[in-house]
């Protein structure tokens, strides 16, 4: 039996449904709170995130606090059975604060301090900002930490960005001293002997700047690591101010797809991970590619703590900040929302509950439109989803088991892009990771998205595309993973630099060379219009029968030598012709595959069909999935919840495998042959398979 995770809040041990609620926009309209509560119940909402940008309403003057409006909201919620993620307001500060203490404002990389305005415009290091934040947070905690409606802390909002003020410069230097111990060690790690960049005093060390130092890769990388460190430290500071009043209350901070912050570093600090998803649906006839990339992010955020997360924000209809804002077509609201649940979310929440009347987000989708009533398409979609989440509430806490992982590190992501290498016009790291992930998603193979600090023990298949930055430690871990029987996939541009962004000497892929059994001698970028190809070598013991003929190759070609590896495919063009392009190395009980060039969807589909078979990874369904339809799994105590999600943009037919299935919402038996209309999302349940449970291949 699989044990579910304990509920995120014991007060609300079901799937959560709700929105950001910003009632401080409507304080002169007391009728609106009553109407909102009526509508919330009508939409099946049980939770709201309150007070996210409320600092000016909570502390209108320095040291003068006003809680009456928030008392009113939370007390009404408590009476009506609606719960609240109570926010700390540090995402935006009141004007009086910026005016009196300009140091709270952020200084950009050009060393110019911003004016008051916008949001997220604050310094992570400013003692005044920290003091003011601790004060307002502890006031909120004293008053509300034991309020019956409050289920947890929503710390700030979408932490991100960096500050280059003097406080931040000196914190950076302190962080570096701690990391390197001496200037000599710092100079060595940053390879400053090149271009006479050697530092002779700590005071000379600064953050990267567009008009100053920006070419030292090790320094750029350390600055990004420091920014993460300082952001996490700020978050810790915020949490410390609220914790004391009720240590039981869980804390989260809503994340976004921000590249500049390594969210894994929040794992120990937060009780639950939450994120904000805003995909631009309906850009193409088929939403499958986009859906697969959203799935990648759901998998990534879930894997930070390896437990259920929260979809803290999404739009009930459209956004208003993207280039083109399309409405969700019929079915898409349910489909995209259940997609989050399928990948391990225990909530579907929106930005925002009621549309603003003015300012920058007045046209952003909301559950309640300017019309002010419930007779809208969007309200209807939200209410329908509320009913579904109600009937699926048993899913809350159910794990999402995965035997496959994509290895995707933030510092690799930063280093790859900073590399000044063979293809500065684009190496497409994220896209490549997502393409590999998509091939698994199309087959209904659940995947975690992990970092090299995670344990590799529970996986059968690890895909580590473009692991450019690979430390000796990570190399050893991957080697041990393969020796124990795992299947590893790597690509070109792997094992090139260590954790300081210094090239591995003695032959690439450095710490992966023994595992992969190859030597990567040279690498080049291709122009967008250049093509090469990979032709599959017939015969051979390592041959995957799913691969045949030739596949188109582009963007990057690596010239590799097979040392102990077997050659499965060779280049077809240019002076590369007949040289290895696809290899497999047997090591211990396992296998390590290497793709020396960027291959397309056709190759990845065939390749992963082969690897799923040979690695023993189990797809969610024993039967074939049509293109653009995925199957994902949440494992309940006695039943599996199988999500069938049709993102293909077309009606699809599907034949279920030999289990007997019921509709998890209605309890009705489900026929073996299913028709999935456009944008259909079906949740089925089946008895948890004992064989699957034990993790043994059938
Ligand atoms: C972000 C923010 C919200 C809101 C939405 C709009 O995710 O956290 O406050 O601005 O975007 O899509
Ligand atoms: Zn600063």
Count of extended strands? 26
Please indicate the count of domains.
3
What class would the helix/strand composition place it in? alpha/beta
Number of DSSP helical runs:
17
Oligomeric assembly: single chain
CATH topology of the largest domain: TIM Barrel
The average pLDDT value, as a whole number, equals: 97
Q: CATH architecture of the largest domain, please?
A: Alpha-Beta Barrel
CATH superfamily of the largest domain: Glycosidases
What's the CATH class label of the largest domain? Alpha Beta
- Which spans of ≥5 residues are poorly predicted at pLDDT below 50? 690-698
Percentage of residues in DSSP E strands:
15-25%
Task: Give Rg in angstroms.
Answer: 26 Å
Mind summarizing the main beta sheet?
Answer: 11 strands, mixed
Amino-to-carboxy terminus distance: 18 Å
Principal-axis shape: globular
Which small-molecule species are bound to the chains here? alpha-D-galactopyranose, zinc ion
Give short descriptive properties of this protein.
single chain; 698 residues; alpha/beta; TIM Barrel; Rossmann fold; Immunoglobulin-like; 3 domains; 9-stranded parallel sheet; 17 helices; 30% helix; disordered C terminus; binds alpha-D-galactopyranose; binds zinc ion
What does this structure look like?
With 698 residues, the chain is of the alpha/beta class. The protein folds into three domains: 16-166 and 226-395, TIM Barrel (Alpha-Beta Barrel); 404-615, Rossmann fold (3-Layer(aba) Sandwich); 629-693, Golgi alpha-mannosidase II (Immunoglobulin-like, Sandwich). 30% of the residues lie in helices and 19% in strands. Strands 10, 11, 12, 13, 14, 15, 16, 17, 18, 19 and 20 form an eleven-stranded mixed beta sheet that branches. Strands 5-4-3-2-1-9-8-7-6 form a nine-stranded parallel beta sheet. Strands 21-22-26-24 form a four-stranded antiparallel beta sheet. Mean pLDDT is 97; it is low at 690-698. Alpha-D-galactopyranose (GLA) binds next to loops.
């Amino acid at each position: 039996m699989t044990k579910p995770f304990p509920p995120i809040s014991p007060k609300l041990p079901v799937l959560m449904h709700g929105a950001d609620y910003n009632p401080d926009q409507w304080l002169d309209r007391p009728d609106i709170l009553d109407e909102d509560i009526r509508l919330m119940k009508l939409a099946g909402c049980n939770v709201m995130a309150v007070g996210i940008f409320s600092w000016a309403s909570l502390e209108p003057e320095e040291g003068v606090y006003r809680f009456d409006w928030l008392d009113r909201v939370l007390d009404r919620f408590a009476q009506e059975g609606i719960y609240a993620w109570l926010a700390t307001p540090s995402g935006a500060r009141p004007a009086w604060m910026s005016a009196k203490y300009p140091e709270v404002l952020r200084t950009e990389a050009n060393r110019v301090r911003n004016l008051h305005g916008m949001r997220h415009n604050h310094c992570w290091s400013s003692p005044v900002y920290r003091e003011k934040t601790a004060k307002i947070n502890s006031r909120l905690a004293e008053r509300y930490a034991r309020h019956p409606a409050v289920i947890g802390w929503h710390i700030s909002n979408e932490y991100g960005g960096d500050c280059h003020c003097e406080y931040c410069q000196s914190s950076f230097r302190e962080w570096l001293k701690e990391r390197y111990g001496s200037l000599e060690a710092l100079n060595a790690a940053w390879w400053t002997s090149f271009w006479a960049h050697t530092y002779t005093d700590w005071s000379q060390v600064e953050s990267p700047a567009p008009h100053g130092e920006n070419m030292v890769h090790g320094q750029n990388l350390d600055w990004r690591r420091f920014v993460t460190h300082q952001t996490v430290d700020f978050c810790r500071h915020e949490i410390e101010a609220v914790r004391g009043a009720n240590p039981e209350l869980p804390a989260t901070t809503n994340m976004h797809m921000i590249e500049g912050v390594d969210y894994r570093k929040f794992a120990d600090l937060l009780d639950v991970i939450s994120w904000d998803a805003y995909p631009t649906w309906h850009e193409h006839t088929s939403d499958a590619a986009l859906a697969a990339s959203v799935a990648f992010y759901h998998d990534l955020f879930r894997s930070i703590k390896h437990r259920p997360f929260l979809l803290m924000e999404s739009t009930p209809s459209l956004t208003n900040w993207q280039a083109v804002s399309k409405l969700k077509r019929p079915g898409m609201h349910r489909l995209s929302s259940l997609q989050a649940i399928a990948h391990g979310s225990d909530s579907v929440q929106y930005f925002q509950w009621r549309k603003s009347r003015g300012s920058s987000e007045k046209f952003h989708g909301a559950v309640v439109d300017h019309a002010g009533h419930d007779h809208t398409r969007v309200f209807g979609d939200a209410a329908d989803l509320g009913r579904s989440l109600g009937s699926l509430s048993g899913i809350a806490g159910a794990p999402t088991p995965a035997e496959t992982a994509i290895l995707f590190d933030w510092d690799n992501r930063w280093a790859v892009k900073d590399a000044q290498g063979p293809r500065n016009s684009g190496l497409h790291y994220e896209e490549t990771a997502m393409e590999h992930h998509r091939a698994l998603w199309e087959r209904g193979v659940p995947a975690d998205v992990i970092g090299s600090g995670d344990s590799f023990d529970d996986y059968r298949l690890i895909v580590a595309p473009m692991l450019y930055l690979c430390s000796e430690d990570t190399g050893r871990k991957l080697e041990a993973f393969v020796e124990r029987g795992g299947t590893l996939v790597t690509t070109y541009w792997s094992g090139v630099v260590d954790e300081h962004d210094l090239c591995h000497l003695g032959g690439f892929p450095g710490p992966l060379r023994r595992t992969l059994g190859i030597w990567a001698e040279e690498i080049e970028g291709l122009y967008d219009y250049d093509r090469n190809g990979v032709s599959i070598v017939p015969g051979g013991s390592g041959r995957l029968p799913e691969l045949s003929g030739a596949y188109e190759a582009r963007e990057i070609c690596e010239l590799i030598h097979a040392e102990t590896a077997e050659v499965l495919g060779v280049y077809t063009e240019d002076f590369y012709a007949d040289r290895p392009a696809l290899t497999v190395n047997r090591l211990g009980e396992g296998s390590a595959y290497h793709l020396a060039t960027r291959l397309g969807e056709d190759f990845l589909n065939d390749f992963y069909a082969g690897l799923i078979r040979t690695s023993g990874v189990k797809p969610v369904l024993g039967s074939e999935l049509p293109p653009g339809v995925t199957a994902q799994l949440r494992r309940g105590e006695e039943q599996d919840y199988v999500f069938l999600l049709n993102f293909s943009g077309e009606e699809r037919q599907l034949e279920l495998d030999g289990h007997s299935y019921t509709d998890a919402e209605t309890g009705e038996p489900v026929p073996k042959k299913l028709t999935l209309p456009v944008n259909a999302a079906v949740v089925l349940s089946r008895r948890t398979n004992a064989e699957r449970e034990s993790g043994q291949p059938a």
